[in-house]
Amino acid sequence: MLGLPIAANLLQARYALTVYNRTADKAKPLVAQGALQAARPADTVTAGGIVVTLVWDDEALESIVGSEDFLERLGPGGIHVSMSTVSPDTGRKLADLHARHGSVYVEAPVFGRPEAAAAKQLWIPVAGPQEAKERVRPVLEAMGAKGIFDFGEEAGTAVLVKLIGNFLIVSAGRSLEEALGMAERGGADPKAVAEMLTSTLFPAPIYQSYGKMIAEKTANLSESKIPQKDVGLFLAAAQNAHFPAPLAGQLLDMLEGGDRSRQ
């Protein structure tokens, strides 16, 4: 659902916008605000323009880029901004594919929940050719970027940063669940524990927001499929780099096994 507030921000900034969603009804709020609705991904593309994708995984992203006329329509001078969390290998492959068609691939994965997008509090690492990054920067700012961090021109680096960040976020979330669960079992008020620790030793937005939700029992981190997907991508990237990542392996086992680790 992150794409909805991001696109709405662009419309509020008076960008002309053509949108596509494989579930057409999900685009209705944007159409009501002035967006045009496309029947297929390639219909969102204009020659030499900027097209933005935000999809679930590598397969979905590759299917869009490989769909009929997408790269041909984008053409020389066109820029594809990928905001999806995918593998570094996919980023590199798509960057090469765009280069062969004369277009440019820029990675700009997003840190932030839908409410952060609506509040224009997103953090975005970027990677790609410098000229293209400069061209898309105003677009990213209009989308709701509070901070844009440049990780060079090599494809794969920005999505690696996103995977690292998500690995740390998931690790923090699971640690908080266990810690505050132990506080409750031991007779301490989880809300008071969360408030103390996140205002002293751990005064970071992730600990503060997730700590509050977990203590108040308004969040169930096991319901989302995102942690398992992204930790899996992090672990695969580590294995491809021949880098040992034992904590990631254990975390993925926990995510795949649900509550088995607590039994």
From TrEMBL:
- Ranges for the 3-hydroxyisobutyrate dehydrogenase-like NAD-binding domain? 156-256
What would you give as a GO molecular function for this chain, any one? NAD binding
What superkingdom does the record give? Bacteria
**What's in the keyword line of the UniProt record?**
NAD, Oxidoreductase
Q: Where is the 6-phosphogluconate dehydrogenase NADP-binding domain?
A: 2-146
The UniProt entry annotates the active site at K162
Q: Does the keyword Oxidoreductase apply?
A: yes
Q: What protein family is recorded?
A: Belongs to the HIBADH-related family.
Indicate what this protein is called per its UniProt record.
Answer: 6-phosphogluconate dehydrogenase
- Organism of this sequence: Paenibacillus graminis
